[in-house]
Amino acid sequence: MDQLLMIPGPTGVSQRVLKAMLKNIVNHRGEEFGKILEETSEIMSKIFKTKNESYILTGSGTAAMEAALANILEEGDKILNIVNGKFGERFMQITTTFGGNSIPLKFEWGKAADIEKIKETLEENEDIKAVTVVHNETSTGVKNPIKEIGKILNNHEALYIVDAVSSLGGDKVEVDNYGIDICITGSQKCLAAPPGLSAITLSDEAWDVVESTDSKTYYLDLKKYRESKSLKPPETPYTPSVSLIYALNEALKVVEEEGLENRIKRHKMAAIATRKAVKALGLEIFPDEEVSSNTVTAIHLPKGTSDKEFRGLIRKKYGVELAGGQDHLKGKIFRIGHMGNVTQRELTVTISAIELALKELGFDIELGKGVSKILEVFSS
Ligand code: PLP
């Protein structure tokens, strides 16, 4: 039996998208591929809600995180890294890797970034060159207030860099409206394409900085991406993952057909239903609920079980793959990804597997109590 993949990325990929990868490999510097690349980038810009170009990078989300920083950083530049989880931490590590002076602004994992603290830090450090924030902290199931942070940054020179890897296509991300200068995403989360690609879009202000900065990376030098994409037909500087781009192109068409607003609504419904279902089973949500994510729910592990026992049973006996916690949350929480193509179909199976596993592990569970919440929300 195929595993039902309910982790927060990679997510299940439809047959339609998988089949797109079977197309013949064509010349990556020819007309046919140029058209596909251009179309994929154009749809990506629509999903980012930006008038600016988007670039498809061969490399997972972390490649785009690197590209965002390695193209704007000079040795010693101050970067304000907002950190409330694993991926916020990653931006901090990338900053120092490329010689930046990271100013970390840390919040407890499970809480959202605090606007007032961000304001204060920016006032204390006028020479901050860029601010990084992760919209949807996949490690904790927290959504950060990217719109509000954008408003603060209206009055500041700093570039605004947003990681929308696990939110684009599943939650509201409006790059131009929020004043985001650099936004990145990955193929394998809410967009429901296979893993291995990422995308990045830059504002005019960000391009001004990129053009006047020596890139700290060769492969991800964005100036080269811009140059190649302006050729006729458009290209990438190096051989791209042609088959994955076929798949991403198809996946983005699916997003367009569903309609972005409908897709976000479906994700929101899945999030509400998941939270109601696990709470009905007596489980506790890990993050503050008012800032909880549209695309992933982090839940305290039921007391008296181990991660290995609990998730292992759900995987082996019921065929559902859930995610564990990361870093210090390992063995403390588990996570349900409800992103990409997830509907009530996958959620009823997932919650029923959790119910059966809890019962088998000796918990006093009324079977169906969680599943009924999924049905209630999706029928409302
Ligand atoms: N940012 C966020 C919010 C993520 O969830 C992830 C992956 O889980 C990444 C960045 C890194 O992406 P990748 O694993 O595709 O390199």
UniProtKB/TrEMBL annotation:
Keywords: Aminotransferase, Pyridoxal phosphate, Transferase. One of its GO terms (molecular function) is L-aspartate:2-oxoglutarate aminotransferase activity. Pfam families: Aminotran_5. It comes from Methanothermus fervidus (strain ATCC 43054 / DSM 2088 / JCM 10308 / V24 S). This is Phosphoserine aminotransferase apoenzyme L-aspartate aminotransferase apoenzyme. Its EC number is 2.6.1.1, 2.6.1.52. InterPro entries: Aminotrans_V_dom (IPR000192), PyrdxlP-dep_Trfase (IPR015424), PyrdxlP-dep_Trfase_major (IPR015421), PyrdxlP-dep_Trfase_small (IPR015422), SP_NH2Trfase/AEP_transaminase (IPR024169). PANTHER family: ALANINE--GLYOXYLATE AMINOTRANSFERASE 1, AMINOTRANSFERASE CLASS V. CDD domains: AGAT_like (cd06451). It is an enzyme of class 2 (transferase). Belongs to the class-V pyridoxal-phosphate-dependent aminotransferase family. One of its GO terms (biological process) is glycine biosynthetic process, by transamination of glyoxylate. Residues 23-326 form the Aminotransferase class V domain. The keyword Ribosomal protein does not apply. Its cofactor is pyridoxal 5'-phosphate. Signal peptide: none annotated. The keyword Transferase applies.
